[in-house]
Amino acid sequence: MDPVRVVQITDLHILADDNASLSGVKPFHSLSKVINAIKSLSPAPRLVIASGDLTDDGSPQAYQHLRQLLLELPCAVYVMTGNHDETAVMRTELPGDNIFYQRQVDCENWKLLLVDSKLPGSSFGFVSDDEFAWLDEQINNAIDRPILLAMHHTPLRLCASPSCQVKNAESFLSKIKSFPQVKCLIAGHTHNEVEEAYGDLRVMTTPSTMVQVTHNQNEACSSNDEFWHFHEADTSRHGYRIVDLNKDGTFESQVSWVAGE
After folding, report:
1. Where does 100-157 have alpha helices with state H?
2. pLDDT tens across 60-100, in order?
3. Measuring CA to CA, which residue among 42, 82, 46, 76 is closest to residue 62?
4. Cβ neighbours of residue 135 under 8 Å, at least 6 residues apart?
5. pLDDT at residue number 76
6. Are strands 147-153 and 110-115 parallel, antiparallel or unpaired?
7. 129-141 and 169-177 helices cross at what angle (nearest 10)?
8. C-beta separation of 58 from 85 below 8 A
9. For site-directed labelling of 188, which of 156, 180, 239, 254 has its Cα 20 to 30 A away?
10. DSSP SS3 for 69
11. What is the pTM of this model?
């Protein structure tokens, strides 16, 4: 049987003005190029996961522009919130037609779980006690089915800046590593491509559809106002991730790139 193809897009940062620029890129235009690339994939994706920072300002207008683009995809799209998103506005403006706000998805023999790492008012991520309890229930109910997790913030410590991290990453990683059926975790937030393996579990961050970032490794910045003093931006390419889920519980994954303007 052919694998089930899942595509992840992340850190879209769509603006209220669909022709406006951010960090030297027009996010609406870069996402449009990525969506055109996804539409040309063969085999075509069964579903797309949009894993947070869907908009930059959380405005209704930005979500309406995003919805316009997501409706072009010929498959289901599952949306998640990131630190830049406004959850209530997103849930009002986005779902409908092929766009879903749904925490768990059955995909052939795989189970997909969308983990909420958003802490209101904070750039960094945090997995709450309620979220841990929900994960326990969902994973235990999946019995022996292979599981793919998706979240916005990566639990990998890729940067010295607190805003780039998950505050309780060690506890979260310890939890998911204790479940052998959890095979893969895909995340975003850091605008770069990194992969680490923990036995049979692979944790992967996915590039942004907008701008890529080289992270501060030596000195933590104290506020978001200082962010670009400690990070470097690359606007030359826009990324997305392909994950092919096999029936036997294995998978293959790769990042694909679209050239910038």
Report:
1. 129-141
2. 999 999 999 999 999 999 999 999 999 999 999 999 999 99
3. 82
4. 113, 115, 175, 176
5. 98
6. parallel
7. 10
8. yes
9. 180
10. helix
11. 0.94
